[in-house]
C-alpha cells in the first residue's frame, strides 16, 4: 500500500507515511513506526491522540443524544453555553456551536453584515480564515477567490512593536470607507502567514478605532483559543473585548467542532432578526465534547502548564538557534511557537523545507512549515512531556543540509 494508491481527490500532496493510530503525542504508521506528532494533527488534538478520558466521554455522548433538529435544545447545550460564558470572562459571551473553523468564520461574517447593515470586511494581508467563498476572500491569497467578493480591505501585519503602518492603513480605510465596513477580522497570532505575534497595544488601538465607527471587531481564535496561549482566549491577554470570537480546532480536541462567541449585549444592541440554519449547529455531541474539554483543562491546570511549557519550549528553541546554522528567530506565546529557516542566498524555501521535513521524519519527528516553507510552526498537544520537547530540539539540532 502506498499513498499514491487511492481514490481521493488530490487536493494536497500527501506525505509518504500512512497512519493507522495515535496515542498521546504520537502517531503510528502501517510499518509500525512511531512518530512524535508535534502539531497535534492540524493543531486540533490538544489533549493528545485517543486521550482515554475523551474516548470515554465520546462513548457516553454517542450512546446518549448526538443530534437534534435545529429548533430543539438539549441540556448538554445549555450546560456548555454557561461554561463558555464563564470562561469568556468580561466578554460575557453568548455562543453557537458549529463544525469547522471556516463554517464558524462564515457565521461571524454573515452576522457581522446583518447586525451592522454593512458589507465591507477588513483583514490582515497575510491572514488565514478558511477556504470557503466568504472566508477565502479574507484569507491570504484571497484575490484568487472566484467570484470576486466585493468590499474587502486589507492591512499589513505589524512586525514587532512597529505597528504604526498597520494602524495608518486601517485609519485610511476607515476614513475613506468606514461607513461601509461591517467588521475587522483578525487572528491574534498570525499563523499561516508566518507565525507573527503582533503586540497587545496594536489590538487595543484597532479596538478603539472600530468602536469609534461602529465596526465590529472579530478575533479568529481558531488556533489561539481554548487554552493554547495559556489563557482560555488570547483576547484576555491583550485586554481587548472583541465583539465576536471564533474558536475551532482545539475546542473539538480532534472532532469537527467549532464555536462562535458573541459579546454579551451584541444581539440586543443590534436587533438580531436573521435566522441561521446548519444541520449540526448546537449538536449535543459537540456540547458534551466541549464541556469535557473545559473540565479536563481546569482539573489538570493546563492553562498554567501551557504557559510554563511554552516558556520551556521557547528557551530550548533559543538555545538551538544560537548553535544552529539554519534555524533562527525563535518566537512564541504559550504553546504556539515559530522558528525561521534561514540560509544565505536562498529565497525559495520549499525544497529546503521538504528536506528538513524528510530528515526530521526519518528521525520520527513530524513537523509543519508555513509561509512557503520559510517558517516552522509548533503547536503541540497540551500534554506533551518536557522529554518530548527535548527530543524535538535534539532532532532539529541534528539536521544537516
Ligand atoms: C485562524 C484560522 N481560521 C480558520 C481556519 C479554518 O478552519 P477549518 O480548516 O476548520 O475550516 C483555520 C485553519 O487553519 C485557521 O488557522
Index terms:
alpha/beta; Aspartate Aminotransferase, domain 1; Aspartate Aminotransferase, domain 2; 4-stranded mixed beta sheet; 13 helices; 17% strand
What does this structure look like?
The chain contains 13 helices and 15 strands. The longest helix is centred in the last third of the chain and has 22 residues. The strands form 3 sheets. A 7-stranded mixed sheet has the order 4-10-9-8-7-5-6, sandwiched between helices. Strands 1-2-3-13 form a 4-stranded mixed sheet. Strands 11-12-15-14 form a 4-stranded antiparallel sheet, covered by helices on one side. The chain has 2 domains: 130 residues, Alpha-Beta Complex (Aspartate Aminotransferase, domain 1), CATH 3.90.1150.10; 235 residues, 3-Layer(aba) Sandwich (Aspartate Aminotransferase, domain 2), CATH 3.40.640.10. Strand 7, helix 7 and strand 8 form a beta-alpha-beta unit. The protein is an alpha/beta fold and 401 residues long. Helix 2 packs antiparallel against helix 10 and helix 3 packs across helix 10. Bound molecules: pyridoxal-5'-phosphate (PLP). Pyridoxal-5'-phosphate binds next to helix 4.
Amino acid at each position: 500500500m502506498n499513498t499514491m494508491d487511492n481514490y481521493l481527490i488530490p487536493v494536497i500532496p500527501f506525505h509518504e507515511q500512512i497512519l493507522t493510530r495515535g496515542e498521546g503525542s504520537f502517531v503510528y504508521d502501517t510499518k509500525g513506526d512511531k512518530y512524535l506528532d508535534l502539531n497535534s494533527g492540524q493543531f486540533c488534538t490538544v489533549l493528545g491522540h485517543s486521550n482515554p478520558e475523551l474516548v470515554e466521554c465520546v462513548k457516553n455522548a454517542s450512546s446518549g443524544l448526538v443530534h437534534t433538529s435545529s429548533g430543539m435544545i438539549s441540556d448538554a447545550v445549555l450546560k456548555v453555553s454557561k461554561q463558555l460564558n464563564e470562561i469568556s470572562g468580561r466578554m460575557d459571551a453568548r455562543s453557537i456551536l458549529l463544525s469547522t473553523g471556516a463554517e464558524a468564520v462564515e457565521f461571524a461574517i454573515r452576522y457581522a453584515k446583518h447586525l451592522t447593515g454593512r458589507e465591507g470586511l477588513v483583514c490582515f494581508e497575510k491572514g488565514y480564515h478558511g477556504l470557503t467563498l466568504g472566508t477565502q476572500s479574507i484569507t491570504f491569497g484571497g484575490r484568487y477567490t472566484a467570484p470576486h467578493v466585493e468590499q474587502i480591505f486589507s492591512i499589513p501585519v505589524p512586525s514587532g512593536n512597529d505597528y504604526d503602518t498597520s494602524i495608518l492603513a486601517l485609519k485610511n480605510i476607515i476614513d475613506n470607507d468606514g461607513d461601509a465596513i461591517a467588521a475587522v477580522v483578525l487572528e491574534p497570532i498570525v499563523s499561516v502567514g508566518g507565525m507573527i505575534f503582533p503586540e497587545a497595544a496594536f489590538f487595543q488601538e484597532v479596538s478603539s478605532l472600530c468602536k469609534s465607527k461602529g465596526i465590529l471587531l472579530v478575533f479568529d481564535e481558531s488556533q489561539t483559543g481554548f487554552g493554547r496561549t495559556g489563557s482560555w482566549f488570547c483576547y484576555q491577554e491583550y485586554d481587548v473585548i472583541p465583539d465576536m470570537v471564533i474558536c475551532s480546532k482545539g475546542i473539538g480536541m480532534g472532532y469537527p467542532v467549532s464555536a462562535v462567541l458573541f459579546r454579551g449585549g451584541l444581539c440586543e444592541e443590534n436587533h438580531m432578526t436573521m435566522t441561521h440554519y446548519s444541520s449540526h449547529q448546537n449538536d449535543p455531541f459537540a456540547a458534551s465534547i466541549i464541556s469535557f474539554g473545559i473540565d479536563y483543562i481546569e482539573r489538570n491546570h493546563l492553562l498554567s502548564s501551557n504557559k510554563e511549557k511554552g516558556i520551556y519550549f521557547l528557551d530550548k528553541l533559543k538555545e538551538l538557534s544560537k548553535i544552529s546554522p539554519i534555524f533562527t528567530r525563535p518566537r512564541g506565546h504559550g504553546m504556539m511557537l515559530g522558528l525561521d529557516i534561514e540560509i544565505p542566498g536562498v529565497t525559495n524555501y520549499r525544497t529546503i523545507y521538504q528536506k528538513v521535513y524528510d530528515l526530521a521524519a526519518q528521525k520520527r519527528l513530524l513537523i509543519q512549515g508555513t509561509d512557503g516553507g520559510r517558517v516552522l510552526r509548533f503547536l503541540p498537544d497540551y500534554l506533551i512531556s518536557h522529554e518530548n520537547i527535548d527530543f524535538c530540539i535534539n532532532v532539529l539540532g541534528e539536521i544537516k543540509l
